Amino acid sequence: GLVPGLLNLGNTCFMNSLLQGLSSCPSFIRWLEEFTAQYRTEQEKSQEHHQYLSVTLLQLLRALSCQEVTEDDVLDASCLLEVLRMNRWQISSFEEQDAHELFHVLTSSLEDERDRQPRVTHLFDVHSLEQPEITQKQISCRTRGSVPPMSNHWKSQHPFHGRLTSNMVCKHCEHQSPVRFDTFDSLSLSIPAAVWGRPMTLDHCLHHFISSESVKDVVCDNCTKIQAEGILNGQSIENQKTTFVKQLKLGKLPQCLCIHLQRLSWSNQGTPLKRHEHVQFNEFLVMDIYKYWVPGPKSSQDQLCQKNSEETTPGMKDGKAGKPSDAEQPAGTKPLFMNGASSSSSSFLMSPGTFPLAAFPECRAPLYLYRLMAVVVHHGDMHSGHFVTFRRAPGARGSQWLWISDESVRRASLHEVLAASAYLLFYERVQGRAQPQSPAQP
């Protein structure tokens, strides 16, 4: 029931821990299999496949997830460093590196590899864009021979790809600027200042991430227009620069969610320090309240569900997100689920197994529900240390957790996993409430 370990090539625990975490995400491995299928159809020599990061990464992750039979208890991942160097990354095997930085290197390199594919659009591609529901078997060709393979360039975003929304509202005239979208491959969360006597939870970090902030001296087009007309509420406006309220939300949640807890801080003297406090997290993660919803007509039941959700959500006040505090929670209401909280209201989630959707009313059942797949932990300080990984055993043994430190692999308990001081959290989306039928819904 164990998985292979990875040879330490000289301070390469940062790479080994990340590979073990990625190998516990089945959706990412499936995406790599679909992405590399294009290379299997090419008439190339077998050794030329090793220049592709996607092929090299897939071989390693399949071996670490026991999808490929290997007699070795310890694998060598030096081939990954070699292919990254071929992609012009300067990575030394003997210098201490950061697992989160390597994660960005891998995702950006995979995107570069995808973008290097031919950009010439095939006629069949245009046809499939106009009719996305068409299948390969339905396409007929009047020329002899088989139909050329279609490139799914627009469908090849990796499962960690998500989008943030940035919403700006003028405090003076309440004019809302167009929503801006930015891509992300991981959510990098700062750890807010701890309140004495209260444990730090993942919800606190997420709410701090999306909490609104004031941005001063922003030119407001609407105020400028009103100024040209001359009067607002009977007073002349002299300055078109106003203060805006900026709000971040998650516009598109990825299939695989990587959360990075920023443990780097700075002392008053300017020296780097590591924050060691424990941030509580659960086996299951509900992300609905952090999702950006497009305003539109809603049924009375949806409005009631939203009202109930806002009343019982930590950190929600008057429908606006803020820092969670006990004072902001209405009397007599308790949230059905708090990410990272170990209170009695969510204690039933601490045991391994299936997320109890039946405990939620139909309109309150989560739509964006994630299951913990791996945790990367850093031991040590900012100058030296060691990365280890907690991950699920692959396949049918998915309820069994493993602790992996380079070549060493042993079994672990869920309680030990949840007690770890996480640096990287890998979650994978599971089926929650019935998915919306609208194709516009990500």
Can you describe this structure in just a few lines?
This protein has 442 residues and is an alpha+beta fold. Helix content is 24%, strand content 24%.
Describe the protein's topology:
Elements: E1 5-6, H1 13-22, H2 26-40, H3 53-64, E2 74-75, H4 78-86, H5 99-115, H6 123-130, E3 162-170, E4 180-184, E5 187-190, E6 200-201, H7 202-210, E7 213-219, H8 221-229, E8 241-252, E9 256-262, E10 264-266, E11 272-274, E12 279-280, E13 284-286, H9 300-311, E14 316-317, E15 320-321, E16 369-380, E17 385-392, E18 401-405, E19 408-412, H10 414-418, E20 422-430
Parallel strand pairs: 1-2, 5-9, 6-12
Antiparallel strand pairs: 3-4, 3-8, 7-8, 9-20, 10-11, 13-16, 14-15, 16-17, 16-20, 17-18, 18-19
Helix pairs in contact: 1-5, 2-3, 3-4
Please give a handful of descriptors for the protein shown:
about 450 residues, eight-stranded mixed sheet, four-stranded antiparallel sheet, 20 strands, globular, disordered C terminus
